[in-house]
Amino acid sequence: MSSTEGAPLASAPQIPTTERGESLPAAAPLGVQELGAPSATDAQSLSIRPGRPADDPARDRFVRAHPRGTFFHRSGWRRVVERVFRHEPSDWIAWRGGEIVGVLPLMRTRSLLQNTQLISMPYAVYGGAVGLSPSIEAALVDAARREGARERAGRVELRYRDPSGLGLVPFSLYSTFIRDLPTKVEDVLASIPKKARAECRKARDKHGLEFTEGPWYVRDLYRLFSNNKRNLGSPGLPLEWFQGLQAEFGEDLVIHVVHRGREQLSAVMSFVDNDTLLAYYAGTADRADRDYSASNFMYCSLQEWAVKRGLKRFDFGRSRRGSGAFSFKEHQGFEARDLPYQVALLRERALPSFNPSNPKTERLRKTWSRLPPWLAARLSVPLSRYLP
After folding, report:
1. CA–CA separation, 153 vs 347, rounded Å?
2. Is the pTM for the entire model greater than 0.85?
3. Which of 176, 219, 235, 265 is most buried, with most CB under 10 Å away?
């Protein structure tokens, strides 16, 4: 699917409008869909409307076919966020005639101080508008900005995976790690750098680690993930979130666990997104990496599993520059690519700074890491709603 500007229309383009009847600025000529011969709808005006549940099947078909659509653009992600965290949907969809030509997944969230933000998407590493042309994507974002201004929101945060060309305020704290998978299972180990490859072999041959799959491991994943988050000084996520994702996405979600005998050393929840496997939530037992190289083994085995399934790419997810996870992914042979997040500042005058890179959070993180596990888990349930 191509996403370029078409030739100017024979007549002057109509100004796109929202469902509420507001005019949106036509900063550039309306894009023309470039999928075969021009259709009769190409000359029709663009309409930007709030998303409705009834639109979800068509919206998901559009997103899955779009080269920049991601797992988090799917309507199912919105449904689980709404159900578990009670954030309100504020999606925008671009229509031309009876066809969807653009989607902006968006949700209304609140901070602990009850300030409103519009985020695309909460609890996700990717988001932003996807459309058949840059002008359609710009119209969707403009609709979101107008919505934010009406609601006196602090900002509109767009977590783009790919450059958007919107010219908003950049928020470049994170990088992502994506690479093509080999076509043969035996080539996965060979594609890993020498030192990490040796650790994988040692985990498999010397320590006898095993890699198993099953939806019944969701509580084990939750336990290991929560333990890691506490050690890092951050609140975790409720068990209901992981179970909700399982129920929503079915076979597009997989959980793997690394065992040494009966001992569970690490676990990972991954998403299957078209031809890509996205390793998303993970947790490791204390000393499992130091003693058994559990993470090296787990991610090597996970890539081998993806190749067996016929997947073409492996997405290692985002990491904050300077973090241990960032270094680990580089040592696995992945190349970092900065994520071009964009922010439209409304009532807020500065980018959000409440993150582990801010030295002012160090005391909070140290205090959290000392909490008893049961208390950290209990407090994480209400706090996670305010850390989207």
Report:
1. 6
2. yes
3. 265
